[in-house]
Amino acid sequence: MNAPLRVIIIGGVAGGMSAAARLRRLNERAHITVLERGEHVSFANCGLPYHLSDAIPDRDRLLLHTPDSLHRRFRIDVRTRHEVTAIDRQAHTVTVTDHRSADVLTLPYDKLILSPGAAPVIPPLPGTHHAFPLRTVPDLERLKAAATDRGPHAVVIGAGFIGIEVAENLREAGKQVTVVEAAPQVLPPLDPELAALIQHELQRHGVTVITGVGFTEITERSVTLADGRTLPADLTVLAVGVRPEDSLARQAGLETGERGGILVNEQLQTSDPDIYAVGDAALVRDALGHTSFVPLAWGANRQGRLAADHLTGRDVRFGGHPATAIAKVFGLTAASTGLNEKQVRALGLTPAVIHTHPGSHAGYYPGAEPLHLKLVFDPGTGRLYGAQAVGGQGTDKRIDVLATALHAGLTAEDLADLPLAYAPPYSSAKDPVNLLGYVAQNVMDGTTRTLQWHEVAGTDRLVLDVRDPGEHARGAIPGAVNIPLNDLRARQAELHGRSVLVYCQVGQRGHTATRLLTELGVDAVNLDGGYLTWQAGQTASVRHPALQA
What we know:
Layout: E1 6-10, H1 13-26, E2 31-36, E3 42-43, H2 49-52, E4 63-65, H3 67-74, E5 77-80, E6 82-88, E7 93-98, E8 104-108, E9 111-114, E10 118-120, H4 137-149, E11 153-157, H5 161-172, E12 176-181, H6 192-204, E13 208-211, E14 215-218, E15 222-225, E16 230-232, E17 235-238, E18 242-244, H7 247-251, E19 275-277, E20 284-285, E21 291-292, H8 297-311, E22 325-329, E23 332-338, H9 341-346, E24 352-356, E25 371-377, E26 384-391, H10 395-408, H11 432-444, E27 450-451, E28 462-465, H12 469-474, E29 481-482, E30 499-503, H13 508-519, E31 523-527, H14 530-539
Parallel strand pairs: 1-2, 1-9, 2-5, 9-19, 11-12, 11-17, 12-13, 27-31, 28-29, 28-30, 30-31
Antiparallel strand pairs: 3-4, 6-7, 7-8, 10-18, 14-15, 15-16, 20-21, 22-23, 23-26, 24-25, 25-26
């Protein structure tokens, strides 16, 4: 009988523990050792912010497994507070420091899985030691204690998903919260006209948002900004991003990316075929096949399972990660999948873009909430690049369908053919995802020509508002002429010989008006997403990437 396979997994939580549990299910005889330098090997790190507001009141609910429970169920040797300091690839050993006893151990392996995760980015600026990161359970305990014991003013530096979730929960806990973001907008995975909706929601709930300015110093009770302002800060949370923990891999001579992260093949093997890397430390392929750093939980869990499959002889591959992400922001949900318009244009591509603003379900059934959807795709082939969604109930369902379509290689036009479930409490007969497909078809085949919100300022077309007079009076694009849609046939003579940009509230009546005028011989284009998208774009504090030199 062959000797049992010796597998060492460096790091627990999502990637490492997924690999360990899957490996045990596939190989009862294997010797599986998990070495975790922290105190907790399996915890819900995505749930940490919600303990700050007591949305999750019991901290222990965030602890999923202990070394003892994992040993009882899976016979896995889990050693917490054990830090791997070196990998000897030739000898197939790792050097480990036991921080409880200070002993230094050398352990042999046949296969090694690296799951060290990511570490918070700490800018080299004065006073960052006064700020709280939030990546681990001990981080949470320190931040929770400070939020309980200190004064009312909290500053969150960084407006990515983690920063926004922390800001929301500190606000729900009664703090006066200010979010500081060096970028021109909150939530960088969203394009500016969608991010503006999230910023408004934060402000509506009493969170002060400062964008386009960084910080220069943190003290125990204040944060100084690059523009000279000083903010009161009884506690400061630093959430400016994370970096892959790849130091062990570098020391071992494994191939890494130019900006960090461990390079792996489709089977999650590093440049050493006996060493795998999973989770936040491993670089993956994005929606267009480019190498990317995607520190999200789905990928870590999936990669851990696949690494265990492959090292036990199964033919598997990890096909990439479209970076599908979602966050709760008070009464709204913000979500994205694939690449946003900024990213696509940065690659030198010119995408087609559509915005829609449907209801979450049939309007005649009570409780429908608005959704704000954006689709980015290739105008010639319909290849999906990415999508974004902001709204109330049903936002998560739509982004998941769009992520599935992206993963499956469907085109923008294919979205119209998806046979999605319908009943009035849940959707409409034309689901919001189907509507994206219909609009994409019209754009791709030339049925309707469109302009984007950021192109309005530069157009020499007559701007025509086809909403009702009351809507026009409540807010309109400057200089627009108001001819309601139902009056358009009778007043068509006023538009002959003119080039016209048509708009309504969300684009649907504008499409009808554009088709009518086109049939009547008028050169007409529709404002994509209507007044609502244009208005959101005006409140965004950034220039659109298509307008940047």
